[in-house]
Amino acid sequence: MAVEWVFVASILVLGAVTALVAMRNALNSQLSDFAGAILSLDPQYEVRGVHNRESSTAGSAYIHNEIKIQGPLVGPNAKPPSQMTPADWRALDLAQNDPLPCD
Predict the structure, then answer these.
(1) What DSSP element (H or E) covers 62?
(2) Which residues, in sequence order, are CB contacts of 89 under 8 Å at separation 6+?
(3) DSSP secondary-structure letter at 2?
(4) Contact 65, 58 (CB under 8 A)
């Protein structure tokens, strides 16, 4: 009887581990998609002024200058922190101490 319980418990543990790995991968994928969506938001706007014979109002505009962020944690070659080497961590530390390049 005890052998059957050990067998059932082993199957349950293996199934739970597999399910948790699948859930972790799906969550990472969804969070990456969400981060891409947030980064693709464009906050630029332009409101033209209104003019007629009696009065006028000025327009307003905001133009967003893109900031390029480089490093091992962002971009197409990004690595999760668990796979980063000491050289990656040094590069990240140097990038955080330097001002961000603006166009």
Answers:
(1) strand 60-62
(2) 72
(3) H
(4) no
Whole-prediction pTM: 0.43
What are the beta bridge partners of residue 67? 102
Percentage of the residues of the chain whose pLDDT score is greater than 70: 73
d(CA 85, CA 46): 45
Distance CA 22, CA 24 (A): 5
- What pLDDT shows up at residue 67? 62
Hey, what's the torsion of the CAs at 79, 77, 38, 43, to 10 degrees?
A: 140
pLDDT in tens, 36-59: 888 777 778 888 888 888 888 888
Lookup: tokens for 31: 């969070």
**Three-class DSSP category at 65:** coil
Count CB atoms within 10 A of the CB of residue 73.
Answer: 15
Quick one: which of 42, 44, 101, 50 has its CA closest to 71? 101
Q: Which residue has the tokens 């001002």?
A: 99
